[in-house]
């Protein structure tokens, strides 16, 4: 990058950069983000009548493209440049146009000075640096392979292990000897006493099973195999046992990473899983659409069902079901005594449609019952997590009658609980972020002190750092969740280097190139969400009821607005009424476009209809704003706003009802980490217009199976939708083409079956590597514990004291 800056300064563009920064100096803003920078440069080019290619292809144009932030300080400019994904360089451009590269520490000091929180005379600030802990672990080299951690790890560690065949066989032998389930020995027994005996024994066992009909059930030859040293777990039939043994035989004779992966994926080592989803209303009905209770609940519930089914299938295939081995999945959530008519006050609830998946709700300790008996916002939840983990450990041990094999955390609070539990129980920890709030709230770290009373980001970001570094592996829904796109910073990437003024500086918060990161997107529940055209699976009376609810029903409790012409093409959206979800932006976009109003009605399913019914500040603001927009753009007769809590089957049918009328789905969020509603809409067959900021960019292939929209440019957004609608009017086939491709996209890439197979394979492979390579993590975990006890806990205690006074 320094060459690019030098090229600007050595060419006739020097006068441009001088002029451009002189104009920036006139701006009031001293901290410019990428959007501001790009806009300012665009305006500069227009004002100075620069040709088109100057904006894109000049040295200065390129430099601007890579510049993420500019901070102005005493006439100097600090340029934060991101030359490639997951990298950062910082330069100081002085008034005389001299350039110096700056260190991360200097950058963080500049940021502190900007908010008047730089006090060097009082001593240094605590610096958090996790890099030394990653120095001795393998790291991916090519950024495009970030998120494919397990493939890399497998190849890397296999090649290391296979270099020393004796050691490798030793590890394999040890690994095979340790498996058991409730005292039942699995895989091999004491008759096989060494790796040599293992190798010989496998050949004998293969010869033995090869003499039997492939479909012969395992129980018919179990005892003969036992005499040869082999216990249950190899397969449910002679054919399956033979296949597994042959993979192992090949692994011993000519090892390679693919055979290793195939073998480890068959090993019965995961039976019991905990999914921690701590804060929310976690229930199966009546909880969606509430603040804080969005996609995470849907995701975890569907994941639990799918995991339980897959584990059960794997157990059956391994021949273990007949021996009483059972899969069990527990969703750990909080018990809320005042549960507003939901089942969130029940300790144990079976997950519908499963044999052995449960929601286990553990109450918070009482502290102040006025608070702890009720729902508590995710921003206020921090003081309760440690004791919650202690209490949950006991409950889990009792429910499982032993330890779980895998603990998966969800969201910051669930991840920190997963960390505490995994540490106490010595179990593999997996993290799922869903949404990292740090990148959702602009400048949330820089101004944390001003925001702390409401948001407590100091606790949240400390917890994030601890949990993400502690996790054995992390699954993300998209690549960009980890490291963003060429022009935007990823959510995990934003933890790499930041300041929490007066609290600490993070100079290296996470190793983005670590193989712990794996992209495993979620799926969509196919029993509720399926194509509108599958009429045989739809209940026509529900369809008619919901059609009436959406378009004509007059009921001021549930619906606002009477459509002048209900036959117009519906533009549909469903979301919680959060500011970020930006349904008000969609209403405004619709309000501004008379052409769109001519062709379409706007149908929103969102939040509540009355401010006084909501206890959530953001939701109240959004309700008011939506009324103002309806008023301002005179949208009566063109909009329906429904405030309904839908059952699962209704929320599936509602998309299909919209598709029956050849409607479209719009997801206008200012930022969306992933966006489950997009999958729901697409699988139902709705052409979908979704925000270009976040996960939808990876789900949708623009103009092929859906469309990107920029929610900060309402005119352009309206034009894109209008163009589609006009095309459909001219060519009725167009809607069907996009609709079919949307359906195909979900079935080919976003199913729970794909997700679960991958997740379980990750759990086994990371478990295997932890065992064989004896990954040395204790020093890292000790450092993280120190942060927990010295930073997190005292702050949580202070918040608790404040809660006690309420
Ligand atoms: N949802 C719902 N009723 C509502 C709002 C949302 O059932 O009033 C469901 C929606 O169908 C989806 C989930 O909540 O399954 C929202 O997930 P998404 O990932 O789109 O967003 P999040 O709310 O997690 O940010
Ligand atoms: C949280 C979000 O904000 C959504 O974008 C995701 O789809 C959801 O969690 C499930 O992961």
UniProtKB/TrEMBL annotation:
Top EC category: transferase
Transmembrane segments: none
One Gene Ontology MF term: sucrose synthase activity
Catalytic reaction equation(s): an NDP-alpha-D-glucose + D-fructose = a ribonucleoside 5'-diphosphate + sucrose + H(+)
Keyword tags: Glycosyltransferase, Transferase
Residue ranges of every copy of the Sucrose synthase N-terminal domain listed in the record: 3-111
Signal peptide, first to last residue: none
Cross-referenced PANTHER family: PTHR45839, SUCROSE SYNTHASE 1
Name of the protein in question: Sucrose synthase
Gene source species: Funiculus sociatus GB2-A5
Lineage: Bacteria, Bacillati, Cyanobacteriota, Cyanophyceae, Coleofasciculales
């Amino acid at each position: 990058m320094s060459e690019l800056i030098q090229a600007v300064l050595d060419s006739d563009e020097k006068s441009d950069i001088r002029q451009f920064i002189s104009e920036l100096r006139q701006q009031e803003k001293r901290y410019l983000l990428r959007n501001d920078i790009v806009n300012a440069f665009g305006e500069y080019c227009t004002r100075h009548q620069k040709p088109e290619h100057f904006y894109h292809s000049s040295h200065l144009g390129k430099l601007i493209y890579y510049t993420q932030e500019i901070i102005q300080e005493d006439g100097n400019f600090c340029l934060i440049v991101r030359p490639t994904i997951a990298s950062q360089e910082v330069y100081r451009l002085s008034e005389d146009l001299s350039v110096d590269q700056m260190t991360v520490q200097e950058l963080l000091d500049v940021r502190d000075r900007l908010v008047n929180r730089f006090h060097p005379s009082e001593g240094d600030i605590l610096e958090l640096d996790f890099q030394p802990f990653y120095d001795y672990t393998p790291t991916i080299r090519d950024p495009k392979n970030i998120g494919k951690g397990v493939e890399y790890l497998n190849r890397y560690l296999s090649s290391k292990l296979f270099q020393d065949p004796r050691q490798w066989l030793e590890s394999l032998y040890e690994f095979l000897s340790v498996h058991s389930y409730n005292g039942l020995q699995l895989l091999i027994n004491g008759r096989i006493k060494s790796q040599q005996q293992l190798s010989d024994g496998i050949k004998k066992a293969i010869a033995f099973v090869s003499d039997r009909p492939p479909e012969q059930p395992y129980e018919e030859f179990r005892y003969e195999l036992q005499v040869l040293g082999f216990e249950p777990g190899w397969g449910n039939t002679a054919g399956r046992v033979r296949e597994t043994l042959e993979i192992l035989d090949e692994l011993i004779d000519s090892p390679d990473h693919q055979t290793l992966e195939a073998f480890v994926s068959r090993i019965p080592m995961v039976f019991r899983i905990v999914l921690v989803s701590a804060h929310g209303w976690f229930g199966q009905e009546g909880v969606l659409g509430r603040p804080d209770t969005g996609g995470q609940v849907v995701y975890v519930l569907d994941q639990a069902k799918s995991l339980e089914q897959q584990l059960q299938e794997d157990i059956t295939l391994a021949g273990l079901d007949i021996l009483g081995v059972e899969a069990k999945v527990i969703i750990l959530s909080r018990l809320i005594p005042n549960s507003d008519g939901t089942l969130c006050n029940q300790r144990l609830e079976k997950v519908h449609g499963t044999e052995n998946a449960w929601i286990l709700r553990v109450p918070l300790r009482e502290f102040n019952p006025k608070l702890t008996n009720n729902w508590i916002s995710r921003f206020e939840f921090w003081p309760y997590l440690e004791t919650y983990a202690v209490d949950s450990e006991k409950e889990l041990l009792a429910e499982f009658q032993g330890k779980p094999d895998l603990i998966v955390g969800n969201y910051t609070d669930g991840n920190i609980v997963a960390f505490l539990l995994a540490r106490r129980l010595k179990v593999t920890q997996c993290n799922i972020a869903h949404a990292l709030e740090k990148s959702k709230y602009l400048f949330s770290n820089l101004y944390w002190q001003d925001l702390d009373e409401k948001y407590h980001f100091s606790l949240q970001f400390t917890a994030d750092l601890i949990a993400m570094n502690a996790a054995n592996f992390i699954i993300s829904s998209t690549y960009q969740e980890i490291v963003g796109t060429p022009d935007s910073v990823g959510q995990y990437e934003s933890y790499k280097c930041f300041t929490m003024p007066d609290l600490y500086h993070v100079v290296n918060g996470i190793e983005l190139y670590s193989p712990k990161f794996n992209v495993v997107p979620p799926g969509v529940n196919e029993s509720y969400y399926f194509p509108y055209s599958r009429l045989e699976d739809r209940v026509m009376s529900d369809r008619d009821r919901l059609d009436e609810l959406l378009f004509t029903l007059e009921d001021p409790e549930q619906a606002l607005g009477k459509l002048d012409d209900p036959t117009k093409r519906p533009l549909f959206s469903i979301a919680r009424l959060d500011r970020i979800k930006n349904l008000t932006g969609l209403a405004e976009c619709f309000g501004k476009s008379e052409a769109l109003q001519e062709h379409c009605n706007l149908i929103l399913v969102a939040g509540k209809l009355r401010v006084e019914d909501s206890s959530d500040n953001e939701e109240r603001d959004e309700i008011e704003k939506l009324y103002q927009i309806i008023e301002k753009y005179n949208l009566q007769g063109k909009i329906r706003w429904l405030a309904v809590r839908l059952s699962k089957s209704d929320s599936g049918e509602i998309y299909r009802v919209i598709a029956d009328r050849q409607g479209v789905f719009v997801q206008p969020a200012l930022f969306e980490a992933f966006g489950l509603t997009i999958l729901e809409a697409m699988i139902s067959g709705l052409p979908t217009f979704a925000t270009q900021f976040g996960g939808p960019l990876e789900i949708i292939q623009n103009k092929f199976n859906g469309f990107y929209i920029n929610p900060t440019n309402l005119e352009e957004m309206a034009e894109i939708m209008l163009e589609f609608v006009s095309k459909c009017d001219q060519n009725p086939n167009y809607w069907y083409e996009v609709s079919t491709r949307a359906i195909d996209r979900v079935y080919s890439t976003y199913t729970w079956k794909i997700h679960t197979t991958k997740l379980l394979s990750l759990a086994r492979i990371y478990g295997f590597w932890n065992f064989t390579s004896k990954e040395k993590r204790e020093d890292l975990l000790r450092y993280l514990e120190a942060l927990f006890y010295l930073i997190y806990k005292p702050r949580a205690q202070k918040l608790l004291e404040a809660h006690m006074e309420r």
